[in-house]
Amino acid sequence: MPLRRTLVAALTAACLFPPLAGAAETAKLTVTGASTLAPLVSEIAHRFENANPGVRIDVQTGGSSRGVADVRRGIADIGMVSRVLKPDEDDLTVNIVARDGVGMIVNTANPVDPLSRDQVIGIYTGRITNWSQIGGPDRPITVVNKAEGRSTLDIFLEHVQLKPTDVKAHIVIGDNEQGVKVVAGNPWAIGYVSIGTAEYHAQAGTPVRLMALGPVVATTGNVANGTYGAARPLNLVTAKPPEGVAARFIAYSQSPAVHDLIHDQYFVPAPR
Amino acid sequence: MTNLHAVAELHRPPVDEPGPAVPLIRARGVSVSYGARRVLGDVSLDIARGSVTALIGPSGCGKTSFLGCLNRMVDLIPRCRVTGELRLAGADLLDPTLDVVALRRRVGLIFQRPNPFPFSIRHNLDLPLREAGVRRKEPRAAAIERCLRAVGLWDEVHDRLDHAAGALSGGQQQRLCIARALLLDPEVLLMDEPCSALDPISGATVEALIGSLKERCTIVIVTHNLAQARRVADRCALFWLRDGIGTIVEQGTVGQIFHAPKSEITAAYVRGAVA
Amino acid sequence: MSIDALRRRRTARVVDAAVWGVPAITVAALAWLLADVVWHGAGQIDLAFLTTAPRSAGRAGGIAPMLVSTAIVVAIAVAVALPLAVGTAVLLVEVLPPSASAGRWIRRSLDILAGMPSIVFGLFGNLVFCTMLGMGFSLLSGGLTLACMVLPILMRAAEESLRGVPDGCRRGALALGMPRHRAITAVILPCGMPGIIDGLTLGVGRAMAETAALVFTSGYVDRMPSALTDSGRTLAVHVFDLSMNVTGGDRWAYATALVLIGLLLVTAGLLSLASRFLQRKGAHKP
Amino acid sequence: MTSISSRRPAERLFVTGLGLCGAAASLTIVAVIGVTTVEATPALSVAGPQAFLTDDGWFPLSGRFGLMPMILGTVLVSLGGLALAGPMGIVSAVFCNHYAPAAVATAYRLLLKALAGIPSVVYGLWGLVTLVPLIAAWAPPGASLLAGILVLALMILPTVAVVADSAIQQLPPALHRGGAALGMRRHTIAFRVVVPAARSGLATALVLALGRALGETMALLMVTGNLVQYPSSLFDPVRTLAANIALEMAYAQDIHRSALFVSGLVLALLVAAALVVAEVLAPDGTRHVD
Known about the structure:
The complex is a heterotetramer. Chain A is of the alpha/beta class. Chain A has ten helices and ten strands. In chain A, 36% of the residues lie in helices and 22% in strands. Chain A is elongated. Chain B has a single domain, classed as 3-Layer(aba) Sandwich (Rossmann fold), CATH 3.40.50. Chain B has a six-stranded mixed beta sheet with strand order 6-7-8-3-9-10, sandwiched between helices. In chain B, strands 2-1-4-5 form a four-stranded antiparallel beta sheet, with helices on one face. Chain B is globular. Classes of the chains: A alpha/beta, B alpha/beta, C mainly alpha, D mainly alpha. Chain B: This is Phosphate ABC transporter ATP-binding protein (PhoT family). Chain B: InterPro entries: AAA+_ATPase (IPR003593), ABC_transporter-like_ATP-bd (IPR003439), ABC_transporter-like_CS (IPR017871), P-loop_NTPase (IPR027417), PstB-like (IPR005670). Chain B: It comes from Azospirillum brasilense.
């Protein structure tokens, strides 16, 4: 009787994995929030766990707004927020872990370089629709924009002084990787993504070229030294000033001990 | 074997053992309707223990419906209503509180198309036995052999009992179904045109089998084949449509029906068919 | 030969070509897609990849915890959804009369369920299982959420399969004096088993490939789970994370996807063997 | 008179169990819709339900909640995908049962089942990296209704094919033999006898596939361009309701988040509407004992 067998298997599984009732752990932290930050924080957590036996840190994703909401409701100890906190979020304690610059990318087949801020505005408002209008070949421009609410969109819009409703895009994307792949696959597309991501792909041979969003050259170095303005903070937030293990974990995340991990994720350690 | 009989007895509700004069099955004014449509009206028929009764007549005049009443397979038909009096060994077959499961173990049914389950031959035969509570393997094996021998299938299949029943020929399948019905030692075996889907040779084998089954149980057989009715039956009942409703126009021994019919319909039907 | 006959022969040839053409296109598209995955991913796969934990957010090390989490989550989903689905299908086909409005409503409700996007299941599971029922981010929450998701697939497949069981089997079983519930469990369900297994294969495939519903329920933790109440990242979530959130994770995403596809092929193969075995035991269609 | 009201306790228990299964199964949708409705209520009460249908544009942060372009986008992508995958899936099933040699059929079936288990993000990546650039070279921007339809068709093809295959396999072989005995050609038997005879199962296959299509998220998010607009051609980008949720949920708060749940609710209504249409167009031939 397959049904019965399935049930038996399920029960066996339940016995093999009994609920952890009162197991020997001294502290458990739950961290939720931005998926951009999750791989980094997850790696930091592994290293922290190894250094502090008995501590367990569960990292969950779901977006920056979830990080804020979960911390406020007490579901999570720490929230990951990949943007500047909004005025109505000043009840939270903010700890910046890393920074992430935003730069324009085009395909390597595209000869147009550089782009002025006005030209970018022209492209994103639909005034410039063909690369020939700004010295390129006669090809229609494919404008890649981010979805409403994304923090890179906010930074971009702030930088070019546009409202969301002004933008005339052809493709709307979610994550940075999607932006890179769209531009890599379409020689006449333009988009904006995390500088670290773009740098990695440019080095790895993906046909994308990074361009500055403003006068300063777009490099992670310039983001690190603070000269490149279009960058977002990657934050760990708590409802109250952090205490105990949470405080230690946040301090650890901001310490030089994890800078290699931050570089591994192509972000920039935040200046202390 | 003794075990099986004991089990079969257990499942047989105690009934008053009728005297030889009392018929095993007694129908009085039985009518069947499907919704508003009446298909069988006012059927009265006695069937004696140990006899073979053939229900004959053209298609669509209620023979199968009547058969369905005898083991309450009509329950499966939505909005089917049966009225009148129908008794098996004195027990009321139309009692809505009757245990139909127990009834169907006493009254077996063979379908027009052989319907072995899509399992192995052994599993086909094991199922009803296990269902009747025969837990141990040996009595089951013994019963299977006994019944397969009874239908003459043992020599043909004993070395491939674990093969698919569906791989058997049509005639073998039908004999397997009969063996399956015999396992529970039914008092009555209902057969709904058991040979009509078979080739003549398989049909003849099954027909011969019916003769040998007489000693084990009472048989009621629906058939369109008048020659077959003459060969296997003791008594015949001719069903006929009257005003769109099936009923019995004449019943009697095979001799009466075929050689001295009282009704002109019978005479014409028998003559037309004989000629 | 008449023109009519010629035309008919031409139609036959066109139809035959089309019937061979469709699988050819499908195979070509799949081969293309698979080749893509193999090309990018095969280089990363070795024994260590299957037996060690991930390092550097998945760009080193292996996927062992994800394999275990996936197996547990899918097992929970099947263990919960399969009995429910088969029970519901039996109810619809064998118990309720075909005209019953209850049956129609159950079927409709499951059809609507089948069309809900998986992210809605994820948010639902998060709210109901993780928060309201207090299971937190756990394999259990994930499994239960997946169960809700695959329920319509399993139910529809089981229902269709039971409808295909020949009436002869049904009546035969009842005429043998089997009570209805025994006729169903001993005869009708075994007859319908191949179709139920086909549905199960689809359901398991869907469950193994699911991402959005699990991000919010079984979670993101890439540790080897030690309890059903632990959070655990499944293979599909890992693939998604590597390809969307981890810069430079593409090759590892493809490698993980390749393992996932391999795992599914093995599961589908085993299930189809089981189905074949059942059919060989029966091998008959009256 | 049916045995639903049996006097046997075992059977009564059995039927009760089945009833509970059915109840639990149908309660699932009530719970899912319930949760979605509760979450959607703030946006519905602030903006009013009609705003979601009549507003011009989708700018939830600026209080504009027009879902109509996305409703149309969802319908077009799903129907397009089904229009491709439906016939192809059915032909695939016919191929397995009536054309292919046994070994080929076995291999093909396994292949289809493998297709069903590829995570949608892999379909999405493939579409994004391979298919979209091909279309872009021809008619930019590439990410389009067409790309969505093609990827979706490939994704739901196995659902149609596997369920249709089951349905056709279960038909009595007598049907096929009967056709052959009448001197019918193979394709006539397959498409004039077998397919019509299996229509209940084929309808199930299509309904399941449509469900999958309407709810598909990740793959479409990567290839359709996600632009909220009424497409004027196959090469125009569109956004589907499910992609809308996945795209914006991560950063959405308050009314914006609630508005995304309205997308989910609208999607459920869309599925219900599709079912009504399906029931009207093809009243299903549910058979039963007798």
